[in-house]
Description:
Elements: H1 2-19, H2 21-27, E1 35-40, H3 47-51, E2 58-63, H4 73-85, E3 90-96, H5 100-104, H6 114-118, H7 122-131, H8 138-158, H9 161-168, E4 173-179, E5 186-189
Parallel strand pairs: 1-2, 1-3, 3-4
Antiparallel strand pairs: 4-5
Helix pairs in contact: 7-8
Amino acid sequence: MIDNLLLGNMKFRESEFNENIELYKRLTVGQSPKVLWIGCSDSRVNPELITESKPGEIFIQRNIGNIVPIHDWNFATVLEYAVAHLKVTDIVICGHSDCGAIKALDKASTDSYIPLWLNNAREAKERVDARMPNPESPQVRSREIELENIRLQIEHLNSYPIVKIALKENRIGIHGLYYDLATGVLTKVT
């Protein structure tokens, strides 16, 4: 597989890189993305591809379940760097259909770390189950949990002091987005 990655890089350099050499030269001296994208690690959801964004336009934090964990050093450093130093103007939390993390909320696991991580999303499942005791189908329930998880992660994001200050000063906007794998459609979540 690594040989395929290296071959892909060679093709990238011969086409995209060479065709946009001025862009890539500018990127060697710094970055100034306007968006912090918090998305799922799912290999089917490539932020730049689904938004047709160019390199340097999106600062990306990806993890299982598009989680905004409370009190996580890794996440907090990304957030602080994006807001305080890169001066992003928008923060996006993007979830997606057929999310394995959301499905895992219903399963017992013997994994060491995944269940602990998913505790950051468990409340989304509990909220949906409370308001939809008899969902019309497992697919409808799953989609509702995926959407509710985006809302929950926005709540988590709003608990960070740097976000509270930036919102109060009107320096950032926070947005929930949902990507449908079957249609390729990206929609706003309210």
